[in-house]
């Protein structure tokens, strides 16, 4: 089993259009990373601004590499300050 990150984030209305515009590129780049098995972020159709997240990576190093790339990306700038609520499973204790 790989490392799975799942959860959600909520976007304030004032930032919603920026997030929606940046999300396709963020998803495409993430899916292209070595070790990425699955990367889905979808906006809840009944709750605008609520985005459900499911990411699966081969191992902890692949997840760390993903986070390093994200920290230096345009996505980090656009999504700065948005609270994320995630659970990560599959990491060694």
From TrEMBL:
Single GO MF annotation: monooxygenase activity
Pfam family, one: ABM
Gene3D superfamilies the UniProt entry points to: 3.30.70.100
Sorted UniProt keywords: Monooxygenase, Oxidoreductase
Presence of keyword Oxidoreductase: yes
UniProt entry tagged with the keyword Transcription: no
Domain ABM: 3-91
Entry-linked InterPro entries: ABM_dom, Dimeric_a/b-barrel
PROSITE patterns: ABM
Superkingdom per UniProt: Bacteria
The protein, known as: Quinol monooxygenase YgiN
Native species: Rhodovulum adriaticum
Phylogenetic lineage: Bacteria, Pseudomonadati, Pseudomonadota, Alphaproteobacteria, Rhodobacterales
